[in-house]
Amino acid sequence: MAPTASVAPVRDTRQRRAIRLAFEEAERPLSTEQLHAVASRESRGLGLATVYRSIKSLVDEGWLEVIDIPGHGAFYERAGKEHHHHFACENCSEVTDLDGCSSEVRVRLPRGYRARGHDVTIFGTCSRCAEKRRPPTRRGR
Ligand SMILES: [Zn+2]
Ligand SMILES: [Zn+2]
């Protein structure tokens, strides 16, 4: 082993593979915590710190992209997807890709401004959460 690289490599490729696999299987954006929950099923004992490090290196490599979901923080998804938007469930924090674009939303830019893109997040309740519409139960500790 010759640690010559200036950037500390993520040593365990098995863990990185588990993380890539988690994204491929989930087919939706994942937060660090959600990724950790999915990936630790594949790779036992996978620590949150390793997940953080792996995400960072996958972002640096351009394999993952960071998306900011207002009120839910940073999520990550495969880079290079076509233009799309997201749905965020306010109940379980699941973020889903949406088809179609709300390009009919027209805004007037100030004179001399140039838009490069837009970002739309739709909020609401996912189908699973809508189904279990039970009255809130008090969870004792
Ligand atoms: Zn939900
Ligand atoms: Zn759009």
What does this structure look like?
Strand 1 (64-69) and strand 2 form a beta hairpin. This protein has one domain (13-131): Winged helix-like DNA-binding domain superfamily/Winged helix DNA-binding domain (Arc Repressor Mutant, subunit A, Orthogonal Bundle), CATH 1.10.10. It is globular and about 55 Å long. Helix 1 (13-26) packs across helix 2 (32-42) and helix 2 packs across helix 3 (48-60). The chain is built from four helices and five strands; from the N terminus they run αααβββββα. Mean pLDDT is 85; it is low at 1-5. With 141 residues, it is α+β, with helices and mostly antiparallel strands. One zinc ion binds next to helix 4.
List the helices and strands and how they pair.
Layout: H1 13-26, H2 32-42, H3 48-60, E1 64-69, E2 73-78, E3 85-89, E4 95-98, E5 121-124, H4 127-131
Parallel strand pairs: 3-5
Antiparallel strand pairs: 1-2, 3-4
Helix pairs in contact: 1-2, 2-3
The structure holds zinc ion (2 copies).
Residues 89, 91-92, 94, 126, 128-129 line the site of one zinc ion.
Q: What does this entry show, briefly?
A:
The chain contains 4 helices and 5 strands, in the order αααβββββα.
Rg calculated over all Cα atoms: 19 Å
Major sheet size, sense and barrel closure? 3 strands, mixed
Number of beta-strand segments: 5
Structural class: alpha+beta
The CATH class designation is Mainly Alpha
CATH superfamily: Winged helix-like DNA-binding domain superfamily/Winged helix DNA-binding domain
Could you spell the SSE succession in H and E letters? HHHEEEEEH
Shape-level CATH architecture: Orthogonal Bundle
Helix content: 25-40%
